[in-house]
Design a protein that fits this description.
Distance between the termini: 57 Å
Shape: globular
CATH architecture of the largest domain: 3-Layer(aba) Sandwich
Structural class: alpha+beta
Largest sheet: 8 strands, antiparallel
Radius of gyration: 22 Å
Number of helices: 15
Length: about 500
């Protein structure tokens, strides 16, 4: 059974977003009178946006300006996790870079709270907001590839599946995530793990340049040779410095097919499986990516432990790499040769409109027996919710880069450990489910060091974020102060600028 199918049957799914080709939506200025709109500033002050100013903004856009009640507003305001039900005062859907600049200039002039949405996967709910401006990049998606130069360029709202689709026919690849409808922007700015990152490095390690609309509305190009400090900060510094309008990634040769699938075990083998993974994960070949997952669905459905595998090396060496994880004697083994693009879609989802979820996560540098015991002893199902414990395999090429080479500073990790609960939306016991996850995580957290900002919990504090940047924090503060001195872009793993 595929992990996707198991999760779906357990009422924990992710949203199935199509991967549209970029198609600008041209809109004329709003006709007739526009009512004033209540809004909030970044620091929470209540303000009123004049209808005339909103009409002026709409007139500047090639894309759309959406207000509550407009067609498309309801779809745009939602993100992947429906437990976040927020209502922006206005939503800008840009068709081009000048649209993004117009949106940023309007937000700055009115000191608006700003959220930037790409794929909408934010676990902390920060790609939408109440009574602020949401910049929805779903209408700003395109990919351009130069196979000879081994480079690919993607606009800011692009989904990673679009890149894989364009590069695969050339037998080229760049490491980007594990779900094809993930936004390239959020993934990359936070670091960017993926099934082939152990072989080729993280997304930030393959990022050659970015174009960013900063808080002053200017378009800034950043690379190793131009604005190198901003380039450094964009590689792991979250969305602190502006709206990225274009990413440039280097590409690597890789055959279209990989060896991938799952090995499944009964829940009774959870301890053995996690122990095995903890021993093998640090020494596994770079070409092998192995994610352990333990799930307990609601009701009477049996729980399951599994290892999800992707091997991108020489086929002749695959059996040797896979042998250790097969020694446990799985009840089912689905590993086979597959198209990499198909593997990248294998955890894509169907529909989450009825499912809410909560996640806690952190990096581990090793998996001692005490951690395995804590994971096993604290893992309890509930008839009203799905309970999931899983790891994302790190290390490999990404671990052989200095902590201060990019803003992402967690190169020591062999895994990103996550605990998740999911429940039907509308369940009055949502707070009970969340507290159950927090209680379980409290027993696991002592074994972690830092967290992945792309999996940041909704209640994380500024102190937590500051410490999480480790030795790179002060350098990020200086960058934030230069490019966003008023903290216009604060809905992210936020770095507070120095006061003037």
């Amino acid at each position: 059974m595929k992990r996707r199918d198991f999760v779906q049957s357990s009422l924990w799914t992710a949203a199935a977003l199509s991967v549209p080709q970029f198609k600008p939506v041209y809109a004329t200025a709003r006709e007739g009178a526009v009512a004033d709109v209540a809004a909030v500033t970044g620091d929470g002050r209540e303000i009123t946006l004049r209808g005339a100013d909103l009409r002026d903004l709409a007139a500047k856009l090639h894309g759309q300006l959406l207000l509550a009640g407009d067609r498309g507003y309801e779809d745009a305001r939602h993100i992947l996790n429906p437990s976040f039900d927020k209502h922006p005062a206005l939503i800008v859907q840009p068709a081009d870079v000048p649209d993004i600049q117009a949106a940023v200039n309007f937000a700055r002039a009115n000191s608006l709270l700003v959220a930037v949405k790409c794929g909408g996967h934010s676990h902390s709910g920060q790609s939408t907001c109440d009574k602020g401006m949401q910049i929805d990049l779903s209408t700003f998606r395109s990919v351009r590839i130069d196979p000879a130069a081994r480079r690919v360029w993607a606009t800011g709202g692009t989904l990673l599946g679009q890149i894989d689709k364009e590069t695969a026919p050339h037998e080229l690849v760049t490491p980007l995530g594990t779900v094809s409808h993930t936004g390239v922007g959020g993934l990359t700015l936070g670091g960017g793990f993926g099934r082939i990152a152990r072989k080729f490095g993280m997304a930030v390690d393959n990022l050659e340049s970015v174009d960013i609309v900063t808080a002053d509305g200017k378009l800034v190009h950043a690379s190793a040779s131009e604005n190198p400090e901003l380039y450094w900060g964009a590689r792991g510094g979250s969305g602190n410095f502006g709206v990225v309008t274009q990413f440039e990634f280097k590409l690597h040769p890789m055959k279209r097919e990989v060896i991938a699938g799952q090995v499944l075990f009964p829940l009774a083998k959870m301890r053995d499986m996690l122990t095995l993974w903890g021993e093998y994960a640090p020494t596994a070949p770079d070409e092998l990516y192995v994610d352990p997952t333990v799930m307990q669905p609601p009701g009477n459905a049996p729980g399951m432990a599994m290892l999800q595998v992707c091997y991108c090396g020489a086929p002749a060496d695959a059996e040797k790499a896979l042998a250790p994880i097969r020694k446990l004697g799985p009840v089912k083994d689905t590993i086979k040769t597959m198209e990499y693009v198909q593997v990248q879609r294998s955890q894509d989802s169907t529909d989450t409109r009825a499912i809410a979820s909560y996640l806690k996560g952190g990096f581990v540098g090793k998996v001692p027996g005490e951690l395995v015991t804590a994971m096993v002893d604290g893992f309890h199902g509930d008839p009203r919710r799905t309970t999931v414990l899983f790891f994302q395999h790190c290390g490999g090429a990404g671990s052989r880069i200095a902590d201060d080479a990019t803003a992402f500073a967690h190169r020591y990790a062999i895994g990103n450990m996550m605990a998740v609960v999911a429940w039907p939306i509308g369940d009055k016991d949502a707070s009970v489910h969340i507290e159950a996850a927090r209680a379980y995580w409290k027993t696991l957290e002592p074994f972690t060091r830092g967290f992945y900002v792309n999996d940041m919990a909704r209640e994380v504090t500024a102190k937590d974020i500051n410490e999480n940047y480790r030795g790179n924090y002060q350098r990020l503060v200086a960058l934030k102060t230069k490019y966003d001195p008023t903290n216009l872009f604060r809905l992210n793993a936020n770095v507070t600028p120095m006061k003037a």
